[in-house]
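Hi R.,

Here's the input for the uridine-diphosphate-N-acetylglucosamine complex you asked about:
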Amino acid sequence: MTALHINGGIPLQGKVRIQGSKNASLPILAATLLAKDNSHILNCPQIADVEHMLSLLRNLGCRVSRSKEGYQIDSAPAGACKMSGEAITGMRSSLCLLGAMLGRFGEVAMEHPGGCIIGDRPIDLHIKALEQMGVVFSEEAGRLVGKAAKLHGADIRLPIPSVGATENILLAAVQAAGDTLIAGAAKEPEVEALCRYLTACGAEIDGAGTSIVFVRGGRSLHGAQFKVPSDRIVAGTYLFACVGCGGSVLLENAPCEQMEAVVRAAESMGARCQPDCGKGSYGTEYGRESGLYVHSCGRPAAVERLYTAVYPGFPTDLQSMALAVLTRADGVSRVEENIFENRFRVVEPLRKMGADIELLEDRTAIVRGKDTLRGARVEAKELRGGAALVLAALMAEGESEITGCAYIERGYENIGKDLRDLGARISSV
Ligand code: UD1
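And here is the predicted structure with uridine-diphosphate-N-acetylglucosamine in place:
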């Protein structure tokens, strides 16, 4: 798919199944390396980033095969060969191989991982924490090389609850000699999912999903079957599509227990949401389906203040979609980005569609809602901003063309089909 053509202005109706979580799948796939055994990972989304991670695992010698419900990964034959530069650049999430390779082989060599252009995205916290665990880093021919004569546990305090750094520490810690304490750990559901997979493989981890995580290192791990939870960001994207366009939608499998802040934001914009979580707090994890009904009509209401925060706050990955919806809101809204400084790149193409957005210096956008947006030719420059442009085009009068769809495909299995199933007039070319 190179472009999406969208004829906007139609309310959404029907149901859509929410794919497995990208951000949970990737570290779990990297973690299969630690098992030295066969793992069966179910509900991985069929997206470019997952394919990329699987090809990295194959390059390392893992046997990867597709099953009906997921992927079988046998990491027993893997060896510490160096990964090629092209393999590792271009995907930020390949960074979790840093912890996995150090845990498995005690050494790693990789290019600086790429990813979406949403700020500098430093990796200083990853490096510092792994150094505390005995890893010595150097730069050789422009590559980051890490070696640990003996990986050991450590007391680590993260000054920022970084998702990626917490995941890398966990991946190294389960194989390190001795115990590791992570204070200030990220509480995101994707970190918790990684802990659940590692625990299923025989690791001992306390405090998963809280800010203090304790790992008893050095346990011998084995393979496991694990179902990746549904993608809360994809669910949130379609939820905001419904808020922006109006209509009634069922988001099948939506992990509503992970979406409280998102549902609250949608409700403050005038939507009615009815979670269908069943009992228990981790429905999707054990194969119980959950879901979310969304109903919205008329113009969305403006919100006084929407701000991104670490989980359980409003996720930065849904900020662009909320911003797109608020361009049509009845009134003036204030949106604050507190995680990544460069998330407002979507403002320029939104303006091309008629949005009135003023950017203040302190990562704040003032959105003066307009009655209508107009269709336009716009280009996606990053994953979530690209999805926000799709939403804006669905809300706009007339036809839009969105190019740069390769970015969007990194996170959405088939955004065009999903939205077509909800009645949108959208085609891919
Ligand atoms: C992950 C998600 C991404 C999501 C983000 C925040 C994946 C593949 N990506 O990204 O979709 O938007 O969490 O929920 O799971 N930081 C540093 N130094 C570091 C690491 C991070 O200063 O070494 C800063 C970042 O610049 C950012 C903040 O910490 O301001 C949070 O980043 P982090 O939680 O690490 O995000 P990622 O793991 O990269």
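One thing worth noting: The longest strand covers residues 12-17.

Cheers,
M.
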